[in-house]
Amino acid sequence: MKKISIIAAVIALCSCSATKTTDAAVDLNGEWDIVKVDGNAVDTTKTEFRPTLGFETAKDNVFGCAGCNSINGKAKVDAAKQTISFSEIGTTLMLCANMEYEQQILKALESVKGYKAAGKGCVDLTDGSDKTVLQLKKQ
């Protein structure tokens, strides 16, 4: 019984809450791990590097890693409306053994229009229909 309680506690601490909050004060600044793509958990054993996104909202910069290649570009964040507009996104051109998550992350990134709090240090990046396409967890 004690073992089950410990496992449940670890899962609760390591995952983002499924309950969405409406906290309008989400601060995207800093580095985030990409933990879900289109609702599916990212298995980092199948990526060359840990998938991440980072934001410098004062400079309109976005940076990170899609699992193999580095990401750099511009991200115009409107905190009041919780919208994001990406532009000039570029990646390095390395070829890695497994590019599955790389392709999914880059495709999802193309559809991002907004963001919202997802609880427990997480934020959801959403498309134009408010559907979560990427979930990030603060590093």
From TrEMBL:
Cited PROSITE patterns: PROKAR_LIPOPROTEIN (PS51257)
Record keywords: Signal
Pfam families registered for this protein in UniProt: META (PF03724)
Domain of life (superkingdom): Bacteria
Signal peptide residue numbers: 1-24
InterPro entries from the UniProt entry: DUF306_Meta_HslJ, HslJ-like_sf, Hsp_HslJ-like
Protein name, UniProt field: META domain-containing protein
Lineage: Bacteria, Pseudomonadati, Bacteroidota, Bacteroidia, Bacteroidales
